[in-house]
Amino acid sequence: MHSKPAMATRAKTTVQADVVVIDGRHMLWRTSDAFSTLSYEAPDGTDHFSGGIYGFVMCVVRVHRRYGGRVVVAWEGKDNFRLKLYPQYKHRHEAPDEARTEQVEEMWGQELELRGLLSQIGVNQYVGHRCEADDVIGRLARECSERGERCVIYSGDSDLRQLVRDGVWAVCPSGREDAVYDEAAVLARHGVAPRLIAQLKALAGDHSDNIPGAPGIGEKTAARLLEHYRSLRRTLDAATAQSNGWPTTDRHRGIVAAARADIELFYKLTKIRDDRDWDELPGKRDQSKVVNSFKLYKFRSLLAPPELRDVMNLGGKQ
Known about the structure:
Elements: E1 9-10, E2 19-23, H1 24-32, E3 39-41, E4 47-49, H2 51-67, E5 70-75, H3 81-85, H4 98-121, E6 124-128, H5 133-146, E7 151-154, E8 168-172, E9 179-181, H6 183-190, H7 197-204, H8 219-229, H9 232-241, H10 250-258, H11 260-270, E10 278-281, H12 287-297, H13 305-312
Parallel strand pairs: 2-5, 2-7, 5-6, 7-8
Antiparallel strand pairs: 1-9, 3-4, 6-10, 8-9
Helix pairs in contact: 1-2, 7-8, 7-11, 8-9, 9-10
């Protein structure tokens, strides 16, 4: 295992994609803060925020200029199957206050408007059916690989690094330069190969998704165990069977053995599924509608010919 993890390749990169998959909700929430003061007056006279929509489009144009290809967007679905397995998944114990509730409603409104705008631009979108955007992205990445296409997954969610393989990169926005993860960069950063990322998170936990993992087992210990046994199943079998050669302390062995059932459940949560159904929102490019939408939203900078051309090229040739 690497004693001093390296960082992912910074974004002066030669990666050129056939398909760029955008983690829709993740990007919308990330970009909305930067333009939180933007709003417009709807035809009915009500004010609506539009900063997230503007930030999203601007960011996707920049990403497309950098990596090329055609852009597709993945969205969260309703009735996530993981919640039936583990109701605490992504659960926050504190009840949302009024400000948080208002923010969520505002962002949901922007998401619905953004979906309509992206369709006008010609961008295909996929909404998970009883699953997360991660699962949609997993299926898109698999289908790209089966077609021999190069795929860039653009998201700050480290869970998606388990999808990295030959021809598939995970790109994390990071200041002026993105962090580009290929298989070597994932190994250097996390101490395990991409195929073991979900198993690592099942053992060590994932605070962002409210997955506790095995108590007292951190990421470094989990990586050491998986490096030694090469899979979660063999790690759990070794802990339960009290076999010789356990690479860490007896205390760790006891913790893993006692938590086996929980760890197996957590793996069902952390493992991205690439076989889930989705609802497709096909892009129907219509520049006149896009121009009218930009005028309504007061996105004047996007109406300049060079910028409008770049926006209309996001969905690829149609």
